[in-house]
Amino acid sequence: MQISFLKDLATPRNPRSHFTFINYLYEQNRLNNYINLDTFLPTRYEYEDYLRWCASHFDQSGLVSYGQEVVEVVPDVVAANGKVTKFRVVSRDVKTNEVTTRLARHVVISVGGKAVIPKELPSSHPRVVHSSQYSMRVDEALADKSKPYNIAVIGNGQSAAEIYNDLPSRYPNAKVTLIIKQAALKPSDDSPFVNEIFDPDRVDGIYRQGADARAQAIVNDRATNYGVVRLNLLEHLYEKLYLQKLKNPNPADWKLQIKSNRQVVKTETVVEGGQEKLRLQLQKLRDDGSVGKDVEEMTVDAIFFATGYVRDSHEDMLKSARGLLREGHSEGAKIPIRRDYKVDFDDNKVAENAGVWLQGCNESTHGVSIPHAPMSFDNDCTDDGFLGWQLSDTLLSIIAIRSGELVQSIFGGEQTTAAIRSKL
How are strands ordered across the β-sheet holding 291-300? Predict the structure, then answer.
């Protein structure tokens, strides 16, 4: 992970909560072992298990329905005064396609991001895999562990570097090439003063800023999360490359390579030796970022790419609710959001005790970013899937505080489970 375990689902809001990472370790009888690791950064494997442990407390509660894809959120129940008091949430079972409708006064949309597939790559190919699907699809994409595959990894950031580091352990005979647009991989800045930009109390100031000020903040603090890699992983990769050179001075024989100052301009499927392959066309870039004339090709068995996400699913879900927005809001503009994460519907159209809240898609108002932009290799690719990066809203840094603020917004000061359930 790239974030302290103290920024878990609960600790910053309530360190005594049952759902802290520390309590998870205690209940798994691993607390002392973890202390002996002397690290604030758990592995992704362990953090995933922590999240599953939290979710397991609700499996038998009847409060969770898995395997549901929400299709739309539609204004439904209207009071005598003409205000909407409930919303109809329409979902489809991903296995049976059965459609279910639920009514709710309060709807929270927190569906995460959709993987960005650059136009230079096939939109659907079994051996072209986004980083978000890597651990689930890598064995399927490359089934033979002993085969001398040729593999390309695309991206400048942490996810690409982790995949580049992991593949040789899975496929010891494979040749793995990392393709980056920069002249070199760069370290992230996680120093203490810089890390304060992720503090919860920064959100108020960010929300009050204009778009221009937020864009300038990107320039000032881009090294925290913008196409960068943690220093310890950089050092580990450099050591692996150095030992490779030590053992064999001929670059043609190296299993690990980095092609810097390259951008992908085209991908096509070809057949070589009776096997289907993927041919990449790479355009060389000058050190100043300008495009050079030289183009080279490389043929690979699989491509793993880390080009981030776009977080706009809520826009489609809420199409039928746009008529509830305040007058003057243009049809093509983003859905406006209040500081408490509530959609800014017209108070004359939606009842005070009803509404829709958004989580994890408010970077343009609650976190440092610039507008959504689906990635292309023509753009400045980042691991985060935008031309800029996101501060608090799409990261784990303030998830506990943010969730608490949302509950306060919906239910006011009533914090007990009984009080909350009575209002659902």
Answer: 262-272, 275-285, 291-300
**β pairing state of 150-154 and 175-179:** parallel
* 253-287 burial: b if 16+ Cβ within 10 Å, else e: ebbbbbbbbbbbeebeeeeeeeeebbebebbebee
In sequence order, what DSSP letters do the residues of 146-204 get, joined into one string?
A: TS--EEEEE-SSHHHHHHHHHHHHH-TT-EEEEE-SSSS--B----HHHHGGGSTTHHH
Q: Is the pLDDT of residue 132 over 70?
A: yes
Assigned domain for 258 exists: yes
The whole-angstrom separation of Cα 364 and Cα 361 is 8
Which pLDDT band, with edges at 50, 70 and 90, does 341 fall under?
confident
195 occurs within a structural domain: no
State which residues form the domain around 39. 1-64
In three-state secondary structure terms, 291 is strand
- Residue at a domain's end among 309, 340, 365: 309
pLDDT of residue 224 exceeding 50, the answer is no
Dihedral sign for Cα 350, 351, 352, 356, please. negative
How many Å is the maximal CA-CA distance in the chain? 81
pLDDT tens-digit readout, 9-18: 999 999 999 9
Q: Are 175 and 272 in a shared domain?
A: yes
Instruction: Let me know whether 26 and 167 are in one domain.
Output: no
- Is 130 within a domain? yes
Count of domains in the chain? 2
Residue 15 to residue 397: CA distance in whole angstroms: 15
Give 113's pLDDT tier (boundaries 50, 70, 90): confident
CATH number for the domain spanning 156: value is 3.50.50.60
Please check whether residue 20 lies inside any domain of the structure: yes
> What are the CB-based long-range contacts (under 8 Å, 24+) for 239-246?
240/165, 240/168
Q: How far apart are CA 59 and CA 280, in angstroms?
A: 45
> Does residue 212 or residue 103 have the better pLDDT?
103
The model's pTM is: 0.76
CA-CA-CA-CA dihedral for 374, 341, 357, 308, to nearest 10? 20
Of the chain, the percentage scoring pLDDT greater than 90 comes to 59
Instruction: Dihedral sign for Cα 420, 421, 422, 424, please.
Output: positive
